Amino acid sequence: MPFVRQLFPDFHHDVPILPERQTARNSRIPYFFLLNGNEDLSTILRRPYNSFMEIGERSRLETAITRMNADTLDFALSLTTESTYHNDIAGMVTAALHDRFGISDALQIDIETCLREALINAVVHGNLSLETCMKSREDFEAYYTAIEERIGKALYKIRRVNIAVLDRNQHLELRVSDEGQGFTFDINAADILFPHSRGLFLIHSLADNMWVADDRRTLCMTFRR
């Protein structure tokens, strides 16, 4: 991982070299990892770091690092589209948030539900650039066939999905970002024929607040603790 070492000269995959009395959790050094089967993501997220970066295509990884360093985040995870699609990211992240921030079991369920819907939108409608109106069985079959085809193409699978969490004391703010063309959502005009509208409507009903940012490529949600 030479280019990672160029970005962070003090970087070590297992144990970072940190200034005296500084811990991994309050440092700005991310934990870099590969999902290669030796260690699953749920184990990785238990490490004492604030941000976790799956190693991938260089320029996209560098952009993700820059974006995450723009804010002082309490938790951040950056993954490729392929890894996001093939793993239960919502379940693993909310379990990590439960341990880190002491959220209740009931709130964990709400956050997991909203995060799962946000990730589906980020992957399918954002990074895979798929939109469809499903009115028949054939429409459903064509839709899911298109997902499987695109997730296997380098053009799509290397795009990144970023999850960021800020602890605002009274509430948690979650942000899910993708590399798509952006989206809009009108709660008064949600079309139940479109999967992203149904998911966003569910998020709107469970989260305390919801809005879009970052040129409409980031979905933000807040949850009262």
Structure description:
The chain is an alpha/beta fold and 225 residues long. It has one domain (30-224): Histidine kinase-like ATPase, C-terminal domain (Heat Shock Protein 90, 2-Layer Sandwich). 42% of the residues lie in helices and 18% in strands. The protein has helices at residues 2-7, 41-44, 58-69, 81-86, 89-101, 105-127, 137-151, 154-157, 195-206, and strands at 31-33, 51-54, 75-80, 160-167, 171-177, 209-213, 218-224. The protein has a seven-stranded mixed β-sheet with strand order 1-2-3-4-5-7-6, sandwiched between helices. β4 and β5 form a beta hairpin. α6 runs antiparallel to α9.
From the structure above, extract its key features.
225 residues; Heat Shock Protein 90; seven-stranded mixed β-sheet; 9 helices
Determine the strand fraction and express it as a percent band.
Answer: 15-25%
Indicate the multimeric state. Answer: single chain
Report the helical percentage: 40-55%
Query: Structural class, from secondary structure content?
Result: alpha/beta
- Distance from N terminus to C terminus (CA atoms, Å) equals 39 Å
- Low-pLDDT stretches are 9-18, 190-196
- Extended strand count: 7
Query: Main β-sheet: number of strands, strand sense, barrel status?
Result: 7 strands, mixed
Topology as a string of helices (H) and strands (E): HEHEHEHHHHHEEHEE
CATH class assignment = Alpha Beta
- Strands ordered across the widest β-sheet: 1-2-3-4-5-7-6
